[in-house]
């Protein structure tokens, strides 16, 4: 698994673009897996804690229970107004729940609605951005994985 910081060191421009989209809006879409394996889509907020991309959730929320059972996730950054002035961002990976002293420090730092709130560190396995070329003639897709690094594709 790869931390956000490790990803950013390997693909700095892609990480800068992805982070800007995540910071441009408060709410994003998180996909998790239900007990029966079907997808669940939830609204979520993300943030950074040290080298890590993180998300918090209310105590006992369905998305937290999903991630505890099966840590795989997909995160789609809020696409904004639909004009595609900025690239669309999608991130996949595994969520690792933060517990103990680190979770308590986070609670003191951000003051979530409940001290029992969940905190997850998002380990990144894939990042994809999709944007429109400057001349508006094709899509520009940037894709990163730890094994393949950053690659760029163009589609008409």
Q: What can you see in these coordinates?
A:
The chain is globular, with a radius of gyration of 16 Å. Strands 1, 2, 3, 4, 5, 6, 7, 8 and 9 form a 9-stranded antiparallel sheet that branches. The mean pLDDT is 94. The protein is built from 4 helices and 9 strands. Helix 1 crosses helix 2 (12-24). The protein is 25% helix and 43% strand. The longest helix has 13 residues, at 12-24. The chain has helices spanning 4-10, 12-24, 62-69, 100-110; strands spanning 28-33, 39-44, 46-49, 52-57, 72-76, 88-98, 118-132, 139-145, 149-155. With 156 residues, the chain is an alpha+beta fold. Strand 8 and strand 9 form a beta hairpin.
Question: What is the element layout, followed by pairings?
Answer:
Blueprint: H1 4-10, H2 12-24, E1 28-33, E2 39-44, E3 46-49, E4 52-57, H3 62-69, E5 72-76, E6 88-98, H4 100-110, E7 118-132, E8 139-145, E9 149-155
Antiparallel strand pairs: 1-2, 1-5, 3-4, 4-7, 5-6, 6-7, 7-8, 8-9
Helix pairs in contact: 1-2
């Amino acid at each position: 698994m790869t931390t956000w910081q490790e990803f950013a060191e390997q693909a700095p421009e892609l990480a800068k673009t992805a982070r800007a989209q995540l910071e441009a809006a408060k709410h994003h879409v998180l996909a998790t897996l239900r007990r029966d394996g079907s997808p669940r889509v939830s609204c979520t907020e993300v943030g950074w804690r040290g080298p890590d991309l993180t998300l918090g959730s209310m105590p006992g929320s369905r998305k937290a229970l999903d991630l505890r059972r099966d840590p795989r996730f997909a995160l789609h950054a809020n696409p904004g107004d639909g004009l595609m002035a900025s690239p669309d961002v999608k991130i996949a990976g595994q969520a690792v729940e933060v517990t103990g002293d680190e979770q308590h420090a986070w609670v003191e730092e951000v003051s979530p609605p409940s001290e029992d709130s969940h905190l997850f560190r998002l380990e990144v396995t894939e990042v994809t951005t999709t944007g429109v070329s400057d001349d508006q003639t094709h899509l520009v897709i940037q894709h990163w994985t730890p094994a393949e690094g950053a690659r760029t594709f163009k589609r008409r």
